[in-house]
């Protein structure tokens, strides 16, 4: 297992896309938060500055690029591509044969990939959110906006969990289909379009309208509840779901995909 971890650590550091995606995620997250913080600081100098509830959750919002309010956390989308390429490059360039030649245990190679990818993504996401928080503090600490609080820390922790699960489900799907192009398309298409279409159908079709609340169980919609904290859920699988409800559904689908990917990885030819 140690050999597999070392192998994956070298592999992830020597793929240029890893560094490009990490840099893009960092620049996007910190840059967007800096823009939001700057805009808010300008508003404080206007005739009608933000007050009370307008700034109560501003620290959490800026740290997570407003994902706590239900906005898509695009940093997770960017970093999930690291997981896609972790398997995608292996199969696209035929490197999986070299991997299986160097590592005798297929389960060990499979586990090492998820561990190394997960740790890398967590590290980049954490640095991104800390950088975003610092930019918010830099612009707004004189305006009564709190950043270094337990609420902001909790928002960061929830977003880290979401980013990890999001990356692992993208990684697992790539291992299942062994095609990084298909995985990349689905990575963006399913959460941003397909699930929204399902929700729209349930909203517009008369016979389905009364069952619209069922769309909260769609995996990525449920996953959003891990990060979103402004709407309070009162029971795990209520409407809306709680953090734990979202984690059970989104995490459960991820675990199933990972287990299937392991089973196929052990039985398929390279």
Structure description:
The protein is mostly helical. The protein has one domain. Helix content is 75%, strand content 0%. The mean pLDDT is 89.
Chart the SSEs and their pairings.
Blueprint lengths: L1 H12 L2 H29 L8 H4 L1 H6 L10 H19 L3 H7 L3 H35 L9 H28 L2 H25 L1 H4 L9 H9 L15 H25 L3
Helix pairs in contact: 1-7, 2-5, 2-7, 5-7, 5-8, 5-9, 7-8, 8-9, 8-11, 8-12, 11-12
Keywords:
270 residues, mainly alpha
Q: In a nutshell, what does this entry contain?
A:
The protein is globular and about 70 Å long.
What is the overall number of helices?
12
Structural class, from helix and strand content?
mainly alpha
Strand count, sense and barrel status of the largest sheet are:
none
Basic shape: globular
